[in-house]
Amino acid sequence: GDSQARDASAADDLLTDGREGGTALLSSPSLSRTAADACQKESAALSSSSFDRQNKGLSTRNPHPMPNPSVVLATAGYDHTVRFWEATRGVCYRTLQYADSQVNKLEITPDKQYLAAAGNPHIRLYEVNTSNPQPVTSYDGHTGNVTAVGFEREGRWMYSGSDDGTVKIWDLRAGGYQREYESRGAVTTVVLHPNQTELISGDQNGNIRVWDLTANACSCELVPEVGTAVRSVSIASDGSLVVAANSSGTCYVWKLQRGAKTTAHFEPLHKLQAHNSYILKCLLSPDNRLLATCSSDKTVKLWNLDGFKLERTLEGHQRWVWDCVFSVDAAYLVTASSDSTARLWDCASGEAIRIYSGHHRAAVCCALNDSAVDI
Question: Phi and psi at residue 34, in whole multiples of 5°?
Fold first, then answer.
């Protein structure tokens, strides 16, 4: 009881105090890997067997195996480490030290070569398939916790959001950031539209904004609930839906015009009271069939987008669930929790089929890329 109360108050602090934790732990990963034109091809090319193929050619006797896995799975959090896992066996095969802060968000490049780890206030880029413990690049420019990070579909540029109130764009081949957008509120979440020309951000003040990268301006602004922080935004891989989750447990769903050059009109579709406490992450599945919501109530819920009926409640985490990511075929979900574990769930059965144990403090972010990579 005491430890759970401590965890709740500590996590409460993370949500409100804006210091080491701040609003750091609240965001959506890039959905660029589920971009519309790649999605069907990837789903056809890859089934859940990608998880089974991962360990071919690995020697268990080698203390530092450096696989080139078909499944890249990483977790991070408040013990200042990033851990890479063999997804099927649940074994950690590599640990990176992230010395100067906690890690708030992780994202893997579309080609699976690099992992971005967002902290306070840096973003560091690490090689996935080597034993090099040092980052290859550090992206410095934010002045607060980086709460969102993701990549454009071709991996040429990266975007980020921070509780310093800005959204930034970084050319991966150049130093520094090339663009900056002011949100006038601590940014909690940023996602890239599948059209690759718009970013959608949410902030602590309850604002959702669309940033038109072609016009280089904010093209749309909406406030679903005045004064209630937007924690997470997710966009469907075909650009047809946007979901925003807030700190009162509500998800707002809008329809977007498919194939439109810009997102000018959000048509309200549904309001879902998904949890009775904070939603820390919402995520639409790559096949646009499910919505996952992660909550401070220790559960993850899977909602069927056809009617927004509750399909599964994933129970097993002992503390707050901060992050989640689907496998490319939407058969599996990985979650990260402040109980210091990550879990791999079978979405059809609702069972946890792997527990990834190794972090010493809260695990607040996870990244997974099991998609087919075009050579």
Answer: -110, 25
Q: Which residues contact 332 (CB under 8 A, 6 or more apart)?
A: 48, 51, 326, 344, 345, 346, 347, 353
Round to whole Å and give the CA distance between 29 and 10: 24
Nearest to 85, CA basis, from 262, 336, 313: 336
One digit per residue, the tens of pLDDT, for the chain of length 375 reads 544 443 443 444 444 332 233 322 222 333 222 233 333 333 333 333 345 444 332 223 334 444 567 899 999 999 999 999 999 999 999 999 999 999 999 999 999 999 999 999 999 999 999 999 999 999 999 999 999 999 999 999 999 999 999 999 999 988 789 999 999 899 999 999 999 999 999 999 999 999 999 999 999 999 999 999 999 999 999 999 999 999 999 999 999 987 677 787 899 999 999 999 999 999 999 999 999 999 999 999 999 999 999 999 999 999 999 999 999 999 999 999 999 999 999 999 999 999 999 999 999 999 999 998 664
Query: What stretches of 46-96 show up as alpha helix (H) in DSSP?
Result: 49-53
Sign of CA dihedral 182, 219, 265, 255: negative
As a whole number of angstroms, the distance between CA 237 and CA 81 comes to 31
Report whether 86 contacts 103 (CB < 8 A).
no
Annotate 193-230 with DSSP letters as a single string: -TTSSEEEEEETTS-EEEEETTTTEEEEEE-SSTTSPE
Phi-psi region at 98: left, alpha or beta (left = phi > 0; alpha = psi -120 to 50): beta
What are the Cα distances from residue 73, in Å, to 90, 154, 175, 334? 10, 20, 27, 9
Written as six digits, the tokens of 98 are 């992230």
